[in-house]
Inverse folding.
């Protein structure tokens, strides 16, 4: 078989796998033929080959096709090979260059966030948190961003466990208030920390979603109010943070990253 024909066959086979991945249920040969634009004979031969390699499974009774276990194995290997920190670091560097402020990445552990990556600003006056440090999720923009895009059942369990202690007079201290705040974050795709953790300290964050569509981490730009206003952060920093997190989410297999609608 000529190289050009081999490449075409490979392309057609991969397109069939993509089509199958987008179907909500198993698909028939006729349906896949119509969707792919291939002839029925070519489509059948490709499916037979993919079936032999465990990329496709066929129901013995209905004869309909669905994705096979081999896809799960490859997908899991691909995800494992992606270090979230390595994927995020170029975007974090861009955000620090843009803002000349500290950029953090955090994950959620229990009712706390944990800093897993950090690029500090060049200023003498700087936020003092370090990698590995834990902070209450409910009074940080990173925690709120992750919670807003967590599975509903996970969020409910989490809200039951949080002890809503006030770090400042601006801290959210009730489940009702945090639920209202998280609903707003889901619409806007961005979370703010307006002195909720520490007086004079603000930050803006967005969630990083993986292939499940739920948050696995978040990025923020943190700064003291003596250098930037909250309005400036919303106008200048929020779009960049949201865009960075959307790109990272896509790299992690998320087909619908968090939106960015700051006026929602």
């Amino acid at each position: 078989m000529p190289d050009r024909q081999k490449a075409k066959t490979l392309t057609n086979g991969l397109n069939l796998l993509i089509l199958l991945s987008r179907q909500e249920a198993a698909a028939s040969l006729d349906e896949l033929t119509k969707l792919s634009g291939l002839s029925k004979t070519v489509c059948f031969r490709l499916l037979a080959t993919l079936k032999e390699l465990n990329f496709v499974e066929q129901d013995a009774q209905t004869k309909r096709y669905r994705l096979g276990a081999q896809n799960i194995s490859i997908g899991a290997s691909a995800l494992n090979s992606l270090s979230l920190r390595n994927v995020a670091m170029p975007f974090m560097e861009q955000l620090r260059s843009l803002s000349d402020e500290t950029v953090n990445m955090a994950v959620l552990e229990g009712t706390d966030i944990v800093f897993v990556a950090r690029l500090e600003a060049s200023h003498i006056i700087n936020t003092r948190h370090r990698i590995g440090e834990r902070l209450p999720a409910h009074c940080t923009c990173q925690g709120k961003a992750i919670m807003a895009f967590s599975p509903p059942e996970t969020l409910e369990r989490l809200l039951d466990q949080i002890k809503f202690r006030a770090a400042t007079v601006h801290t959210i201290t009730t489940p009702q208030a945090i639920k209202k705040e998280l609903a707003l974050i889901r619409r806007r795709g961005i979370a703010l920390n307006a002195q909720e953790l520490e007086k004079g300290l603000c930050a803006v964050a967005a969630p990083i979603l993986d292939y499940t569509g739920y948050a696995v981490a978040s990025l923020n730009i943190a700064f003291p109010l003596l250098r930037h206003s909250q309005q400036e952060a919303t106008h200048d920093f929020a779009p960049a943070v949201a865009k960075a997190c959307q790109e990272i989410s896509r790299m992690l297999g998320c087909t619908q990253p968090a939106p960015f609608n700051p006026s929602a």
